[in-house]
Design brief:
The complex is a heterodimer of chains A (107) and B (121). Chain A is mainly beta and 107 residues long. Chain A contains no helices and 10 strands. Classes of the chains: A mainly beta (107), B mainly beta (121).
Chain lengths: 107, 121
C-alpha cells in the first residue's frame, strides 16, 4: 500500500494568514490526489481533486499544487470557517490511503 | 439534490455482525463507483472498501479483508457493507461516498452523514 505522510499534524494560525499543508507519497502517484476539509461532527468535504483542480463551490483561496510524490494544499488568506482538519487522499491504487490529517487551529 | 443517507449502525458485541446501507438519490447511481470510509473516535479517516458502478469489481482494505463485504443493488440505488466478526477496533463512524467521476479511484465528491458503529461487550 502507498503511504501518505501529511505535515504538519497541527498548526496555529491567525485570520488572514497563508497556510500550507503538505502530503508526500511513498511512491509516485502522478496527480492522483485529492484534499478534504472536515469540521467537527461533520462529513468530509472535497476541496481539490486531481491535485490542482478546485471543486465547484469551493472558495478560490484554496489551491492545490504538486505531482509525483509531493503535494501542497494552500489557503491563501485564512478565514474563520477554515478552522478544521484537512486530509489528503491518494487515488493511484487500492487500498487507498489518507494522510494522517492536519488540524488548523486559531492562534 | 444529490444525497447519500446511511443507516444500520448501532451497538454490537465483539464477534457479531451488522449490515450498513447507503441509499442514494439525485444522480445516476449505477454509473458511479461507491466507497465506504470510516473514522474511529478522535482519529483520522480510513478507506474501507470500494465497488464499481456495475458491481462487477470490489476491493476491501487489509484491516477488514475476509470480514467485510461490499455490495450494491442498483435497482434500489443502495450500497451495502456487510460486517462480520466485528472487533472493538471496528468502532467508528462509517461514511459512504460517491466518486466524482465513474472510476473506482476518483475523488469523493459526495458524502453521507455517517452512521455510528460501536463494538463493545
Amino acid at each position: 500500500a502507498i503511504q501518505m505522510t501529511q505535515s504538519p499534524s497541527s498548526l496555529s494560525a491567525s485570520l488572514g494568514d497563508r497556510v500550507n499543508i503538505t502530503c508526500r507519497a511513498s511512491q509516485g502517484i502522478r496527480n492522483d490526489l485529492s484534499w478534504y476539509q472536515q469540521r467537527p461532527g461533520k462529513a468530509p468535504k472535497l476541496l481539490i481533486y486531481d491535485a490542482t483542480s478546485l471543486q465547484r463551490g469551493v472558495p478560490s483561496r484554496f489551491s492545490g499544487s504538486g505531482s509525483g510524490t509531493d503535494f501542497t494544499l494552500t489557503i491563501s488568506s485564512l478565514q474563520p470557517e477554515d478552522f478544521a482538519t484537512y486530509y489528503c487522499l491518494e487515488g493511484y491504487s487500492t487500498p487507498r490511503t489518507f494522510g494522517q490529517g492536519t488540524k488548523v487551529e486559531i492562534k | 439534490e444529490v444525497q447519500l443517507v446511511e443507516s444500520g449502525g448501532g451497538l454490537v458485541q465483539p464477534g457479531g455482525s451488522l449490515r450498513l446501507s447507503c441509499e442514494a438519490s439525485g444522480f445516476t447511481f449505477n454509473t458511479y463507483a461507491m466507497s465506504w470510509v470510516r473514522q474511529a473516535p478522535g482519529k483520522g479517516l480510513e478507506w474501507v472498501s470500494v465497488i464499481s458502478g456495475s458491481g462487477d469489481s470490489a476491493y476491501v482494505g487489509d484491516s477488514v479483508k475476509g470480514r467485510f463485504t461490499i455490495s450494491r443493488d442498483n435497482s434500489k440505488k443502495t450500497v451495502y457493507l456487510q460486517m462480520n466478526s466485528l472487533r472493538v477496533e471496528d468502532t467508528a463512524v462509517y461514511y459512504c461516498a460517491k466518486t466524482k467521476y465513474q472510476l473506482m479511484l476518483d475523488a469523493f465528491d459526495i458524502w453521507g452523514q455517517g452512521t455510528m458503529v460501536t463494538v463493545s461487550s
